[in-house]
Each structure stands twice: as structure tokens, then as C-alpha cells.
Amino acid sequence: MMTRNSGKVIVFLMLAILLVGSVWLSAQMESEEGDENAELIEAGRMLAELSDTAGGQGCINCHGTFGVGDLELAPNYRGRTEEDIRNALESVEQMDFLEVSEDQVVALGAYLEWLGGFVPAKSELRSNSFSPTELTVPAGAEVQLIVDNRERRTTHFISSEDLGIEPTEIRARNFDDFLWTAPDEPGTFSVFCDDCDEGDAVLTIVVEVPEDDGESEE
Ligand code: HEC
Question: What is the pTM of this model?
Fold first, then answer.
């Protein structure tokens, strides 16, 4: 009796070890895939942001910070794919001078697709205040808050308890982004410029439920 039972225990233990092992292995593989994709996205971001002299392609010089297309030189390209980039490189006259390798197209594609998952909300820092001072985002959205410091010399620090942003330095002529999931309920949230003048140094983020959604939920 004893031996039969201990045999069962051993089989059980072996199965348990196998199960735990395979769960661990697949979690490991998934996180490696995640890491690889994160690296690709980061590489794409560098290519888009850095000038050619710094090893990048300078896409943002025409397409705007994080590709929002606000420079009126080139359209918003957030959410575009590798294929769209290849097509643009072939057909857009203004992009003729670019020499983008196939590896770079892949990284840029991963980056643009990643950007497409977020609603951009952009404000600039000028003359010691935010401009605009209010941004509206849809409830429940994955938001990419973009703060572009347009001051010529002044470094600013921004922070937000509401959005979970620790005091962050943004140097003159530099920008940064902060990812935030807007709540499902409407409300207003504040981002502060800690060292700007008092008064206009608050950026208010208004979370609104889009009208169609409100109706279809009725
Ligand atoms: C010198 C300015 C300039 C630069 C630099 C530039 N682009 Fe463009 N790009 C344009 C213009 C202008 C268009 C729009 C052409 C049109 O619609 O006629 C465009 C269009 C595109 C499109 C198609 C967008 C769409 O859906 O309509 C993609 C994708 C794109 N560019 C990606 C890139 C990437 C990636 C880089 C960096 C490697 C880059 N561009 C650099 C000017 C530029």
C-alpha cells in the first residue's frame, strides 16, 4: 500500500513540476517577446526624433513631435504601418532625400503602430505657462500627454498627482511624454508647472464621455 501511494505522489509531483515549468517558460517567452517589441519601438522613436547627424531620420521635423502633424508640413502619421512608410518613401517627393534602411523601416513601423494606440494630448510651455491651458480627452482612453517646452532657455519642472507624474525636468526646446489611462467617468485633472509663474501654470485635463457613447449606452 505504502509503495503504491508514494508512486502516485511521485507521479503527481512530476506532473506538477512539468506544469509549473511550462507555465514559467511560456511567461518567460512572452516577456522576451514583449522586451523585443519594446526595444524595436524605442529604436523607432530614436530614429524619428534624432536628426540624421545624430544617427536618426528626423521624421518629427516634418510630422511633428510624436507625429501629431501640427507643423503643417506633413500629416499625422500615428498608427501607420511599415507598409505605409515604404509607400511614403517611394511616393512622397518631400521624403525623397531620406535614406531609410529596411531595418529602420521595421523599427519605425513598430513605433508608429504603438503611437496609434494612444490619444495624443499636447500642450506647450511658453512664457512660463501652458499653452493651451486645457485639453479634452475621451473617457477611458489611453492618453499620451505630450509636454513640449518651447522656452528658449528656461528649464521647467512639471508634476501631477492626478496623473501620477513625479516632478519631471523638461529642458528648454525639449519635450517629454506621459502615458495615462483616463478614467471612465467624466472629471477634471490637473498637471502643474512647478516653477512657472503662478496663475496660468496649471494644465487642466478634462475627461469627457463622447456623445455617441452616451447615447448608445441608454
Ligand atoms: C521633409 C519633410 C518630411 C520628412 C523629414 C518626413 N516626411 Fe513623411 N511625409 C511628408 C509629407 C509632406 C507627407 C504627405 C504627402 C502627401 O500626402 O502628399 C508625408 C507622408 C508620410 C506618410 C504617409 C502618411 C499618410 O498616411 O498620409 C508616412 C507613413 C510618413 N510620411 C512617414 C515618415 C517617416 C517614418 C519619416 C522619417 C523616416 C518621415 N515621414 C519623414 C514629409 C516628410
Answer: 0.84
Per-residue pLDDT reduced to its tens digit, 80-117: 999 999 999 999 999 999 999 999 999 999 999 999 99
* Domains identified in the chain and CATH numbers: 1-117 (1.10.760), 119-217 (2.60.40.420)
Closest residue by Cα to atom 1, ligand 1, is 94
Secondary element (H or E) of residue 17? helix 2-49
Contact 165, 190 (CB under 8 A): no
Instruction: Please list every protein residue whose CB sits less than 6 Å from any atom of ligand 1.
Output: 48, 57-59, 61-63, 73-75, 77, 80, 84-85, 88, 92, 94-95, 98, 100, 108
What separation in Å is there between the alpha carbon of 85 and the centre of ligand 1?
8
Count CA atoms closer than 13 A to 109's CA, side-chain side.
Answer: 16
Residue 20 vs residues 8, 14, 17, 31, 68: alpha-carbon distances, Å: 18, 10, 5, 17, 45
Distance 152 CA to ligand 1 centre (A): 27
| Grid coordinates given for 52 | 540624421
